[in-house]
């Protein structure tokens, strides 16, 4: 059975303006690879409800899981929960379990549980909460859509809460060989190897280092014996890393 | 007249597996902001032709410009030119001007202009070449689709070659105020300010630093006087950064 597939939707003007560099996609991509869920697509959209609704509906239909990042705080530009509810045709109100979690948190901290903070208890009916051990305001899973915070350490904590609940597949394994020759030299033999090992994914990632061309050849798959065999043939084609 | 819009398509398994962290989106996002082209969407897909063709066709139809990154080298997994040609319903053959550029380059370097290297001269008819001063193999613009390399320094050089050709709009300006209070405190007054300045984009980007909550409030727009006015009202709402 093939591994489950996933998409990630990153929400936020600050990413698209170039002000902030996203860190969450790279973190989650590595975690999904580790547990055998295949990340097929990432989208990044602005803080605009129609764009978020359209992306949520496209990606939840075409993948086993959709993870979103960003837009679940208390400010006016936090509209992800509204957009996800709209994508599912649900209304969004304050939910009692989320409200109670937040009320207790602000009570302990001696802070007012004001209207802005109560906004973070707006969770669609039928969703299950995703624990946020850092700032308490929960994420949620609704169907196959998992709604997570954008602040990187909260995002990572939510990923750690959520992933053990999801059924993974075979971890995607990989081995890398660095070859210190240009891709123009590597390409011919590598293409034949890729055709011979069509059950594996063989990628060539070129680099320039101190003015010299090279490439990292990455062989990926779920069967370690096949990867070993392909890697030994690759190494024989380019002895001593091709240098 | 509103600014032109753009999308970016990042192509490559190595990004989706979490092995490599993309750097090109962040670079181009900043450059587009500078010249007044509004980046509305980013997608990242695997090295799979149907996924690339579908993304190219969706994004070129919905934005004024589409920039792609990755997949134009000489190896078997470099299929972006094929996918773009297919998206436009064109065939793809060796083009003489690109072939001549590459032949002269490899001749100067004393390297064989082999079949793999000739693959990089496959440019759709009607496209204009994008100069690559680093490794010569050109990118190309076909209609509103701009096809660029994935290696970061080559990508950046191609962006520098290409952007002066594109008509920009008003640069997106921004000012930032750091407020050392939680978003739950900031949200109410900030929401009223955002409603008053509906012509601007006002975003709140929370952080946790040494265990204390704060947020950077970013006010964006193209009219510097309006941004100044909104920023002065914001500063009055949160004197001394709210601390």
TrEMBL record, chains A, B:
Pfam families: FLAD1_M, MoCF_biosynth. Residues 7-170 form the MoaB/Mog domain. InterPro entries: CinA, FLAD1_M, MoaB/Mog-like_dom_sf, MoaB/Mog_dom. It comes from the Bacteria. Transmembrane segments: none annotated. PANTHER family: NICOTINAMIDE-NUCLEOTIDE AMIDOHYDROLASE PNCC, NMN AMIDOHYDROLASE-LIKE PROTEIN YFAY. This is Molybdopterin-binding protein. It comes from Albidovulum salinarum.
């Amino acid at each position: 059975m093939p591994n489950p597939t996933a998409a990630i939707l990153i929400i936020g003007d600050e990413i698209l303006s170039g002000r902030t560099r996203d860190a969450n996609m790279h973190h989650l991509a590595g975690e999904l690879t580790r547990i055998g869920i295949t990340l097929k697509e990432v989208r990044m959209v602005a803080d605009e409800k129609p764009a978020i609704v359209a992306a949520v509906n496209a990606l939840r239909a075409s993948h086993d899981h959709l993870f979103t990042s960003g837009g679940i705080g208390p400010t006016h530009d936090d509209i992800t929960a509204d957009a996800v509810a709209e994508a599912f045709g649900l209304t969004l109100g304050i939910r009692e379990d989320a409200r109670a979690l937040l009320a207790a948190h602000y009570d302990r901290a001696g802070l007012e549980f004001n209207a802005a903070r109560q906004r973070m208890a707006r969770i669609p009916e039928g969703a299950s909460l995703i624990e946020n051990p850092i700032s308490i305001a929960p994420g949620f899973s609704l169907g196959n859509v998992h709604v997570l915070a954008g602040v990187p350490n909260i995002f990572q904590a939510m990923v750690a809460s959520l992933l053990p609940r999801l059924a993974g597949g075979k971890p995607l394994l990989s081995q890398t060989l660095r070859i210190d020759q240009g891709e123009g030299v590597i390409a011919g033999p590598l293409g034949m190897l890729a055709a011979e090992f069509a059950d594996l994914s063989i990628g060539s990632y070129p680099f320039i280092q101190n003015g010299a061309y090279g490439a990292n050849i990455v062989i990926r798959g779920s069967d370690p014996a096949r990867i070993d065999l392909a890697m030994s043939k690759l190494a024989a084609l380019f002895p001593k890393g091709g240098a």
